[in-house]
Amino acid sequence: MANKPSGVRLSVHPSRALVDEKFKVLVQNAPPGTELTVRSHLLSEDKHNWEAFGHYMCDSTGTLNLCEDPSLGGTYEGVEPMGLLWSLRPVPGSKPGLRMRKTNVETPLEVTVSVYQGHLSEGFKEQSCLAAVLVERWYMAPGVQRIPVTEHDLTATLFLPPGPGPFPAVLDLWGGGGNLVEYRASLLASHGFAALALDYLTNKVTMTTGKRMKNDYFETAYTFLEQHPQIVGSRIAMWGLSLGTSWTLKMAAYSKVMKLRCAVCFSGSHVQPVNGSIEELLNYMRINQDKVRINGKQEAILHDVILPIPEDPAFKVDVGRVQCPLLLVVGQDDQNWPSFISTMDIKAMMEKAGNIHLLTLLVYPNAGHLIEPPYSPLTRTSNFRPLQSTGLFMVLWGGQTVGHARAQEDSWRKALVFLREHLYDRRKTFTSNL
């Protein structure tokens, strides 16, 4: 808690928590009935400033409780205590196309929450705040181990929950941007799941030799988890986002090595050359680049690249072969990929095959493509560098701020429940110690 001569007191509880935990913001000792602005500010790892703010009226006792009192304006409105996080946006004057992503998960996101007199929308640097509190938001709970993995030519990072284990595990795949993205895997470990973040596009072998990995690369990662002494080899799931969904569905349907206990797929499709691997899928997308649309804001819309959904079974995963529980999460405002259309085809295929009982479907009308852990700011558009290019271009991912935030919170909670149901002994629970 930080105090100014004004006597206004500001508290945020908890001030140190996981990124998916809610906090409570309380202002006390303000002049009764006064106008206040509550602002959050974050300096990202790439040195860009982000902010969110709400306009409030404190009550007759000089108290403001963000869990009860509505914001009357700002970057969010209504009773939205977490709006200080999910409505974060680059400050005015920032370069376009920014996306907030955590690279170093061993340090927290540091968010300064402050309160100002009056209803402000700009010029915060020129104003003195009445009080301010520094808040830490972590992906890694205390005791989570981060272990780089290079065995068997893998480029990966293993996260183990606190304790001796053994733990159920999740093989975590991101999308077409490549790189080793660790923040979701580290958060999964904070909830009791061992998680292996796997780089399958810009991994060491590919970057050294120029050769794309084959499908057995994913099987190697699975076997690494299966044989690890702190992992229950019979309780392994796969989680894919976007392009990662392509490999999750393919492995679930066709791999003779991977015996997945369940699978989680966000914002993806089953459309791909069934007999191909990474190179063949990227080529399949490349030859359809003429279907990319450019809107009036010069934003690229990739939604139609793999449309229409092919009838030829050689170009879509036979999801009727899937034998493990499958969770599909899609946003109907996904402008980057036909995830909703693909999901409807997947549903129809599983109904016809008789394994529809394995499917759990979550559809969010106002969510876009990049459905992240709770309270992450919406990235509706951002700069993106395709694997086949050295240049950046602006991509439209989609999503409406409030609806997308609701989808992120709801889908994350339900995905954790799904994993616990199928990976964990239901009598056991796991909590972080932040």
SSE inventory with pairings:
Layout: E1 9-13, E2 16-18, E3 24-28, E4 35-43, E5 49-57, E6 64-65, H1 83-86, E7 89-90, E8 109-117, E9 131-138, E10 145-149, E11 156-160, E12 167-173, H2 183-190, E13 194-198, H3 204-209, H4 216-227, E14 231-241, H5 243-254, E15 262-266, H6 278-286, E16 293-294, E17 300-301, E18 326-331, H7 339-353, E19 359-364, E20 381-384, E21 393-396, H8 401-423
Structural features, described:
With 434 residues, the protein is an alpha/beta fold. It is 21% helix and 26% strand. It is built from eight helices and 21 strands. The protein has helices spanning 83-86, 183-190, 204-209, 216-227, 243-254, 278-286, 339-353, 401-423, and strands at residues 9-13, 16-18, 24-28, 35-43, 49-57, 64-65, 89-90, 109-117, 131-138, 145-149, 156-160, 167-173, 194-198, 231-241, 262-266, 293-294, 300-301, 326-331, 359-364, 381-384, 393-396. The strands form five sheets. The protein has an eight-stranded mixed β-sheet with strand order 10-11-13-12-14-15-18-19, sandwiched between helices. Strand 16 and strand 17 form a beta hairpin.
Rg over CA atoms: 23 Å
Q: How many angstroms does the end-to-end distance come to?
A: 18 Å
Major beta-sheet overview: 8 strands, mixed
Sketch the topology as an H/E string, one letter per element.
Answer: EEEEEEHEEEEEEHEHHEHEHEEEHEEEH
Arithmetic mean pLDDT: 95
Which strands sit side by side, in order, in the main sheet?
10-11-13-12-14-15-18-19
What coarse outline follows from CA principal-axis ratios?
globular
- How many beta-strand elements? 21
Give the helix tally: 8
Q: Which structural class do you get from the secondary structure elements?
A: alpha/beta
Give unreliable regions as ranges: 1-5, 429-433
**Beta-strand content:** 25-35%
Helix content: 10-25%
